[in-house]
Amino acid sequence: MTFLILSLLALETAVPVQAPQVSTPVLSRSIEKGQIFTADDFALEKRTAAQSRGALSPEALLGLEASRPLAAGAVLRSGDAVTPRLVKRGEPVTIRVRSGGLTISTSGRALADGRLGDVVRVVASTNRNLDGVVEATGAVRVAAP
To answer: 85-142 maps to which CATH number?
Structure first.
């Protein structure tokens, strides 16, 4: 019984141990899904080493797109950012066909989202569905027939 009372007294008088703090990049504002990260989106805050584990640097995130809504103060990890979509479903695109030194361009509309190098379906102004490779923002390259 005496041992139990002494143990309880020792617990009450023990000084809590502070975990070491590390400067960690966090979001300075909330970000919506699909927004592109910029340098202004980040701030440094003190966090424990456990909270900082796996945090990505702002340099690694610049130009990437948020894969989900993110709250201000969040520590960003690899699953929070993806390569940006250059073509978005329903938006206008330029469709290019290249053959040798000849390039033919027409307008169309994307039927799916796509990142650089993705194959997406587009509908040309002639109402013909084509499959093309995303090569730039709003631009799709279709193979020559």
So the answer is: 2.30.30.760
